[in-house]
Amino acid sequence: MPENGDHLLQEFLAKVDSREALIGVIGLGYVGLPLAEVFVQGGARVLGFDVDPEKVEKLNRGESYIGHISSEGVKKMVDAGLFSATADMDRLSEPDALLICVPTPLTKVREPDLSFVENTARQIAPRLRKGQLVVLESTTYPGTTREVILPILEESGLKTGEDFFLAYSPEREDPGRKTHTTRTIPKVVGGADPRSAKAAEACYKLAIEKVVPVSSLEAAESSKILENTFRCVNIALVNEMKMLFDRMGIDVWEVIRAASTKPFGFMPFFPGPGLGGHCIPIDPFYLTWKAREYGMPTRFIELAGEINVGMPLYVIHRLMEALNERGKALKGSRILILGLAYKKDVDDVRESPSFKLIEELQKRGAHVEYNDPYVPRTRKMREYDLRMESRDLTPEGLSSYDAVVVSTDHSCYDWDFIVEHSRLVVDTRNATKGVTRGREKIVKA
User: What is the pLDDT along the chain (445 residues), one digit of tens a residue?
Assistant: First the structure.
């Protein structure tokens, strides 16, 4: 007789192979909803879970609330009977696989906040059944799945690798990117044990073109941390170079373009007003926090984090200098922030530096408004509740502001028009590089 774990694994693999497996996605945001979509496209049935009843109702009506996921696509999934959403956590026992896609933010003192992950695991534990696969996708530090998730799930009395399967597979979403999609971006998968690894690999092959198995949970978790720490450090480097070159009267964007002509040994990264998105601003702090457990100082990574966190204040400093040269104080000035999203051509505002810019400008007595065609109004977030609406870009409106700060360089912006009608443009993205008239109004920051 085969061991019970082997028997359960074979049952799971058979369900996956026959497309009979029900996939549960917990957290239907910028990671979970695209993931649900590609599983449906792969022929699987998906049950989505979210604590927000409004999101659940919209999805079940076939409506999307994420810019790059069309309502037409959601409605097609619902009408085909392959997708539905629920806020009823008692249904967590139904899916054969549960993929956890919940936030992992930082606390106010920049330490990991795993409350969403832990609460999700505690919701699953009393409903966990034999043969289920549980996968954590949320960004976190190496050791989270084994040290935090596994003990909570085993409070059910079931054993990992024998009664249920546990894995980690880092999300690699990049909203707005046209060249790669959720389906085409390779998926790293690490299991708590060999059976769990096999189950997770088979599960993701339903939806993803290439699955990359690694030897452990920790290796999979570490791959995600390395990817984003690499980007964080290099962005910090060019941000620091930008500040230095500004003092030297050198255009950092021109320097990057020139360096990029080297066909080897150089990879371009670009400065900005700060880091945004859910991963790059957060991952390095997760890693440095975990490193303290091993008595290992991560000075290089911590310095990069400090530089990037400080960029909004640098932008404000440059704005204050530019206003001062025009005989105007920041206090009492009317400032327009162009772009609330953390990157161009998306509606994703997670960790966007624009929020920090607005907060700090308001603290200094400025009257601040914003424009973003992708974000018509702000919504309550964990740290911010601005209660603002996007302002229209008109000649009269632009000329009424003492300064326009380019925080996000959406492709739809007409930079010639913006510069023509503005008194002062503080450009953090090199968005106005093609503007020929009115360049005396532009200050790089």
Answer: 346 899 999 999 999 999 999 999 999 999 999 999 999 999 999 999 999 999 999 999 999 998 889 999 999 999 999 999 999 999 999 999 999 999 998 887 778 899 999 999 999 999 999 999 999 999 899 999 999 999 999 999 999 999 999 999 999 977 777 788 899 999 999 999 999 999 999 999 999 999 999 999 999 999 999 998 999 999 999 999 999 999 999 999 999 999 999 999 999 999 999 987 666 677 778 888 888 889 998 988 889 988 999 999 999 999 999 999 999 999 999 999 999 999 999 999 988 999 999 999 999 999 999 999 999 999 888 778 889 999 999 999 999 999 999 999 999 999 999 999 999 999 999 999 999 999 999 999 9
Write out the two tokens for 394. Answer: 């008109």
288-303 b/e with 16+ CB inside 10 Å = b? bbbbeeeeeebeebbe
Catalytic residue among 101, 203, 232, 279: 279
Phi/psi at 262 (5° precision): -70, 125
Residues 138 and 169: their CA atoms lie apart, in Å, by 8
Give the C-alpha separation, 138 to 117, whole Å. 8
- Distance set, CA 426 to CA 76, 272, 318 (Å): 44, 12, 8
Cβ-count burial of 326 within 10 angstroms (0-12 exposed, 13-18 middle, 19+ buried)? exposed
* 203 counts as catalytic: no
Distances (CA, A) of 397 to 135, 300, 336, 340: 50, 44, 10, 18
Backbone angles phi, psi at 79, to 5 degrees: -65, -30
Residue 385 amino acid letter = D
Helix 71-79 / helix 32-41 crossing angle, nearest 10 deg = 50
| Token pair listed for 213 | 């198995």
The helix/strand count (H/E) of the chain reads as 16, 13
Structural domains of the chain ordered from first start? 4-215 (3.40.50.720), 236-444 (3.40.50.720)
**pTM recorded for the entire structure:** 0.90
Can you tell me the distance from the alpha carbon of 80 to that of 405, in angstroms, rounded to the nearest whole number?
46
> For residue 445, what are the contacts with CB-CB under 8 A and spacing of at least 6?
246, 273, 314, 315, 318, 319, 405, 426, 427, 428
Residue 267, Cβ density class (10 Å: 0-12 exposed, 13-18 middle, ≥19 buried): exposed
